[in-house]
């Protein structure tokens, strides 16, 4: 099969982890007889430096024509002084919004070989396997007005959702739950926010369309606590944009590192942008220390969701498992008796592991 992939390396560790994902995609193509073509485009700080804007038109146009998009990360201290609308992060928010990528799927699974790598007790983490379905193109991130006013004595951000925006993410979450253990937790702040009360109402209406899914509501503060005291309680969580952002970084501690969490930002027709949950990690950028597994696992999600290549995705995930089983890891993971390697060596290990596995057997 032929697929055209747009790579958006971005900033900081973004280029390092994107290169790792590309390497693994090339191995996948070789192994399964596909033709993957790649095109690299600017986004974020790199786009500001090269083209004066965080989301150039060419980047957007290339993404619209792509079969799949892989993003590294954006942002960094170099661009922090810029006004909000010119910051690297605006490029990422812009591409999500412009492409209508409203559903962000963030799976979190404790790898058996990494149970000791989490700061949480082994018995708490063991068996955890959850999916955060984060609304990605609405809420506080996009509401208007958002401004300083009254001579800088006041500031406003706005949380807006339309009924349709809530309905489509809730549908997505119910459908994800149907493919998993059929337990959905809708996370909100309905004791305070009107938007959350409407969110709850919609979940209550929608549940009749999915009678096989057990659904409940949980306040976000309690959910934050339960995520790290009893993570195996959860199957699928669905929540608005900002809550989902915060809860997913928190949930990454189950895996031992933020550098392990992949994500898919998708829309109804299957186009997706695949992005690790982590940021540009300026503290370790350019040192080949970054964990490439979040980006590699994001590429596997692209194979699964945008290309319908589930066997290929399984192969990448199995290779990641095998490499971790062999105790190879980057510095962010604390693995007792493990073999610490650079990010590029870890990516090569995944690729070699795939090549050593004959899929025609
Ligand atoms: P961060 O996720 O970049 O880093 C948080 C911590 O996790 C750091 O200690 C970092 O070294 C570590 N870390 C992250 N990814 C890692 C990896 N793959 N391997 C090893 N360690 C890893 O968050 P931050 O420091 O708060 O933000 C830095 C910049 O990244 C900011 O400009 C922020 O806006 C941006 N950001 C971008 C994205 C994105 O592009 N999707 C996501 C989050 C943050
Ligand atoms: C993420 C990031 C982004 C977000 C930032 C960089 C805009 O934290 O993808 O989780 O908040 O969505
Ligand atoms: Mn985040």
UniProtKB/TrEMBL annotation:
Primary enzyme class: oxidoreductase
Names of the cofactor(s): Mg(2+); Mn(2+)
Entry superkingdom: Bacteria
Note accompanying the cofactor annotation: Binds 1 Mg(2+) or Mn(2+) ion per subunit.
Major subcellular site: cytoplasm
GO molecular function: 3-isopropylmalate dehydrogenase activity
Isopropylmalate dehydrogenase-like domain boundaries: 4-350
Annotated pathway: Amino-acid biosynthesis; L-leucine biosynthesis; L-leucine from 3-methyl-2-oxobutanoate: step 3/4
Stored PANTHER family: 3-ISOPROPYLMALATE DEHYDROGENASE
Subunit record text: Homodimer.
Official protein name in the record: 3-isopropylmalate dehydrogenase
Protein source organism: Halobacillus naozhouensis
Lineage, top ranks: Bacteria, Bacillati, Bacillota, Bacilli, Bacillales
């Amino acid at each position: 099969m032929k697929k055209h992939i747009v790579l958006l390396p971005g900033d900081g560790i973004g280029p390092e982890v994107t290169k790792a994902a590309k390497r693994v995609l090339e191995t996948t193509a070789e192994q399964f007889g596909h033709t993957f073509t790649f095109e690299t485009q600017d986004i974020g700080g790199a786009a500001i430096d090269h083209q004066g804007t965080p989301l150039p038109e060419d980047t957007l146009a290339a993404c619209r024509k792509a079969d799949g998009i892989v993003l590294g990360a954006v942002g960094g201290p170099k661009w922090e002084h810029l006004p909000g609308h010119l910051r690297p992060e605006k490029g990422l928010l812009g591409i999500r919004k412009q492409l209508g990528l409203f559903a962000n799927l963030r799976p979190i699974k404790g790898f058996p070989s990494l149970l000791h790598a989490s700061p949480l007790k082994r018995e708490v983490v063991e068996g955890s396997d959850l999916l955060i379905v984060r609304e990605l193109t609405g809420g506080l991130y996009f509401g208007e007005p958002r401004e300083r006013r009254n001579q800088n004595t006041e500031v406003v951000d706005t949380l807006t959702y339309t009924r349709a925006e809530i309905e489509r993410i809730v549908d997505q979450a119910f459908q994800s739950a149907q493919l998993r253990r059929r337990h959905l937790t809708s996370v909100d702040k309905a004791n305070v926010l009107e938007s959350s009360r409407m969110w709850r109402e919609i979940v209550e209406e929608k549940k009749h369309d999915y009678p096989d899914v057990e659904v409940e509501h949980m306040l976000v503060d309690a959910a934050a606590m339960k995520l790290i005291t009893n993570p195996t309680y959860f199957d699928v969580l669905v929540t608005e944009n900002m809550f989902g952002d915060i809860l997913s970084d928190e949930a990454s501690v189950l895996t031992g590192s933020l550098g392990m969490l992949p994500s898919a930002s998708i829309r109804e027709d299957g186009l997706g942008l695949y992005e690790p949950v982590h940021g540009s990690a300026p503290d370790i950028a350019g040192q080949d220390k970054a964990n490439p597994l979040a980006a590699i696992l994001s590429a596997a999600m692209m194979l699964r969701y945008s290309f319908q290549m589930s066997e290929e995705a399984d192969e990448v995930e199995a290779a990641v498992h095998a490499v971790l089983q062999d105790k190879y890891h980057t510095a962010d993971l604390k693995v007792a008796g493990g073999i610490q390697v650079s990010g590029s060596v870890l990516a090569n290990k995944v690729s070699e592991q795939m090549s050593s596995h004959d899929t025609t057997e």
